[in-house]
Amino acid sequence: MGKEAKTNAMRILEREKVAYTAHEYPHEEGVAVDGVTVAASIGEDPACVYKTLVTQGNSKNYFVFVIPVAAELDLKAAARSVGEKSVAMIHVADINKVTGYVRGGCSPVGMKKQYRTVFDESVLTQQKVYVSGGRIGTQVCCAPADLIRAARAATAKIIF
């Protein structure tokens, strides 16, 4: 396959001096794969594989929440964690416009703009964490503290 094409997420992790490993998983071109399937295909416990969700608050600001792939975002807790009255998931059609990433390839690192980002506090119990590498078919794995720093994120209890 030759030299692996780096994504924006990988470039930022390198710039921030974050040690990471990239992991490819099988997928159909342009088709998002659910996170539990991704975890199985890279041979990892779904508890250490996280998905990136993008929301919009009452204020019209965008917020990014990063949670375990098998978990569900608690929208009320998520809103509280960023000081909003409420947050709602953005439409799939808006993901690329807002983040620069496609659905299924949205990384918490390297979006078009730096949005307020919150990881579920469960990330702190993991030795390593996987998130999208910035395109469908690629995950990056690194230490949670390094990932949180690179994403300029906070942590809070944001899942049920």
Radius of gyration: 15 Å
DSSP strand (E) fraction? Answer: 15-25%
- At the first level of CATH, the class is Alpha Beta
Biggest pleated-sheet summary: 5 strands, mixed
CATH-derived topology: YbaK protein
If you had to describe this structure to a student in words, what would you say it looks like?
- Residues 37-149 form the YbaK/aminoacyl-tRNA synthetase-associated domain.
- The protein is α/β, with parallel strands linked by helices.
- Helix content is 21%, strand content 24%.
- It has five helices and eight strands; from the N terminus they run H-E-H-E-E-H-E-H-E-E-E-H-E.
Characteristic terms for this protein:
three-stranded antiparallel beta sheet; alpha/beta; single chain; about 20% helix; about 160 residues; YbaK protein; five-stranded mixed beta sheet; 5 helices
Topology:
Elements: H1 8-15, E1 21-24, H2 35-41, E2 50-57, E3 62-68, H3 75-81, E4 87-89, H4 95-99, E5 116-120, E6 129-132, E7 138-142, H5 144-150, E8 154-156
Parallel strand pairs: 3-5, 5-8
Antiparallel strand pairs: 1-7, 2-3, 2-4, 6-7
